[in-house]
Amino acid sequence: MNLNDYFDPVSLDRPQQKFLTEKSVFGRNIITHTPDGPIRDLQHFNLALIGVPEERNSPNKGCSKAPDKIRSKLYELIKPNSRLKIIDLGNLKIGDAVNDTYFGIRDIVTELITRNVFPVFIGGTQDLTYGTFLAFRKHKKIVSLVTVDSKIDLTNDIKKFDSQSYLGKIIFKKGVAAVNYTNIGDQVCLVDQKDVDQLKKSFYDTYRLGVIRTNLKETEPVLRDANMISIDIGSVKQADAPGQYNPSPNGFYADEICQISRYAGLSDNLASFGLYEVNPEFDRENQTVHLAAQMIWYFIDGFSRKTVEQPNIKPEEFTQYIIHLNEVKQELVFYKSEKTNRWWLRNPFLRKNTQYHTYIACSYNDYMKASNQEIPDRWWKAFQKFN
Q1: Is residue 310 part of a domain?
Q2: Residue in 51, 90, 83, 78 with CA at minimum distance from that of residue 303
């Protein structure tokens, strides 16, 4: 595959040096696909930035301008960890039809994963998540998808497919291996209860905004088990991100969404990250594109610091805790990493020949609940799903 056939080069002015020296800025410390510098061998790169100026399957007209706007702000930030080798591939050439764009994303993700290069997508609209999913399906991978959104992008019309209904084609299509789905940050006033009930019936999870904001750290285990993460900027409140098509006065604060992005980067299972729905035409003084750039920066910062670990790989680096739950007559086995202080719960419901994780990412709170003879939600949901 010649990646130059898929991408338009980056054409941006030199980053303005407002508060950092020229040598220390992000844009001066990565390799960029430019008109004079084509894409060459990806062998030594860890991460690739990909702009996707696609908006045809959405009412959010104007968000196709977001990739270059976000990129310009990202380039002005401090350089990433020097251990990371990053390439900006440019903007994906959109196809004659929107489906061509989805298949183009599929091909790109397949190629990058094969080369062990992590793709970071800058949208564009959130239906582009479907293109990434196609790559996982092509390789017959079981997908664990996490979205961060104020709404649940579903519809009762099975023929409809756009940025506000794309999820159905991923999580409810027959024969599709998308067995794990979670949304973080949905707002009760914006979500049809029928959609929530439909998700619960299929053993998918939702974490309401009000619940998750009481302890933002509880998002970390959810994100740790994901291999696809898709963030809608609409999950952020309007005051902090005015550049969105359908804003809400409620939502995550700017610092909270940056923390969530960093947790995403720390995930050692993740294979794709995307940020979507930023619309510069509704923005005020580039506030939203600046926030989006910082979200990507914090994701990359987390990515550079992640630790690949599982209790079965180096058991000597974990402490095991066994709790007997009298009510359900079950033994819960927890593992705490002495290196990162992260927690796991052994999945006792595995079937033979399954690709599910042997261990469920969890938190210290789950362990404390079990210690108090309370059934942790993560254990209960696993029990329902596997039985």
Answers
A1: no
A2: 83
Report the C-alpha gap between 31 and 45 in whole angstroms: 9
Query: Which of the pair, 166 or 137, is modelled with greater confidence?
Result: 166
In this structure, the answer to whether residues 276 and 323 fall within a common structural domain is no
| 117 three-state secondary structure | coil
Q: Are 327 and 298 in a shared domain? A: no
Helix (H) or strand (E) segment spanning residue 103:
helix 98-114
- Is pTM, for the whole model, over 0.90? yes
Q: Report yes or no: 129 and 166 within 8 Å, Cβ to Cβ.
A: yes
* Nearest Cα residue to 235 out of 215, 217, 218, 259: 259
In angstroms, the CA 371 to CA 324 distance is 8
Residue with tokens 């996982």: 136
Question: Phi and psi at residue 349, in whole multiples of 5°?
Answer: -110, 20
Given this model, what pLDDT does residue 20 score? 80
Alpha-carbon span 53 to 7, nearest angstrom: 11
The span from the CA of 68 to the CA of 127, in Å, is: 19
Dist CA 3 CA 152 (whole Å): 34
Closest by CA to 207, choosing from 189, 222, 197, is 222
Nearest to 363 by CA among 346, 345, 340, 384: 345
Bridge partners of 118, per DSSP, are 47
pLDDT of residue 381: 83
Spatial separation of the C-alpha atoms in residues 66 and 36, rounded to whole Å = 23
Do 164 and 270 fall into the same domain? yes
157 and 235 both lie in a single domain:
yes
Residues 110, 257, single domain; the answer is: yes
Same-domain check for residues 382 and 267: no
Tell me the pLDDT tens digit for each residue of 87-127. Answer: 999 999 999 999 999 999 999 999 999 999 999 999 999 99
Enclosing domain of residue 179:
3-305
Residues 196 and 325 in one domain: no
- End of a domain among 285, 305, 325? 305
Could you give the CA distance from residue 106 to residue 314 in angstroms, rounded to a whole number? 34
Angstrom distance (rounded) from CA 370 to CA 152: 31
Which secondary-structure segment (H or E) carries 20? none
